[in-house]
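Re-run requested by the PI after the first attempt was lost when the workstation crashed. Everything re-entered from the original request form. Ligand of interest: cobalamin.
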Amino acid sequence: MAKNTNKTFSPKQLAQGIGVSEASIKRWCDKGILATSRTGGGHRRIPLESVITFLKENQYELIRPDILGLPTGAGRGEWTYEQARKHFASALEAGDEVKSRQIVLDLYLAGHSIAGICDRVITPVFHQMGDKWDHGEVAVYQERRAVEILHRLLYSLREILPAPSQAAALAIGATLTGDPYSLPGLMVELTLQESGWQAFFYGCELPVDTICAAIQESKPDLFWLSVSAVESIESFLKDYPKIYETCESEKVLLALGGRMINHTIRDQIRYSVFCDNIEHLQTFITAMEAMRNKRDNH
Ligand code: B12
């Protein structure tokens, strides 16, 4: 398994972090309950992603999250989506990055999927922020600051997700020229990684020819395009078929989403799957993998 982060902890650090004895941690390491590596001198080291997997699967409270490099207070809160939305909105508006991270991490540690957290907490909060900005209730700087906080938050989640294996399916994604909206692309990247894929968001505002070149060169299993803004409908309808045709000839699945793609546009284009939200993509990926496993077992 390729590692996401080099952060590892000693049994003593983890024991202090979750309030159990060091002997218990060592026993769990040796039984394989906690994925462990060894230093050159034979000492046990527990990678951060193994700590997170363990916390998600067991009911241990994080007593000292700071020891594990996690935000103060993480792992303590039990949120309903509704409460999480309310507190996440206030934290983001106030620019409280620690609180924002804590809420998302709490939800993740409590077993919520990345897709669920994105669609049910983060996205509605950004929609609400857009409406408030439109009504002059939120300043431009608050919105921009919130986007930056979200970037850092989503990157930090990527670090704690289990790393995909070298044999994992590959996905790449982007937005086209004229589309500066980065959050949906990053959310898709994380969701695919949570499903065990190697996923790379190549960024925003890519000219169509370079997207096609990337698909031809990387030959991913899936390409995702997020369309939140377009230069013009005409330019989109001219450029998009080039992406579809490249995917078709390279046998790459094309997942499409984004608020600009309405029914009139959908009637004029082709894709492998259209998603209104991130959970739709997760459902599609899960179904595809179940189909592949079924076929492999026959
Ligand atoms: C942040 C923001 C910006 C930032 C974006 C920065 C960044 N790095 O992303 C910046 C500053 C660039 C920006 C600029 C502008 N913005 Co703006 N922006 C927003 C805001 C507040 C949040 C956008 C966001 O990230 N939402 C969160 C994402 C995750 O939600 P989502 O887009 O709905 O995506 C979901 C689904 O569509 C789906 N999805 C999307 N893509 C894909 C792809 C795949 C493969 C899958 C599976 C799923 C999927 O999954 C997501 C999760 O459920 C929105 C409010 C809103 N309603 O979204 C306004 C909003 C979109 N902006 C608006 C406006 C007016 C503008 C500007 C014109 C402002 C200006 N005068 O300059 C410019 C236009 C820029 C352009 N070139 O188009 C308006 C648009 C109004 C309209 N009718 O179109 C909105 C709605 C605000 C409002 N209420 O008025 N904006």
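Saved to the shared folder this time. The radius of gyration is 21 Å.
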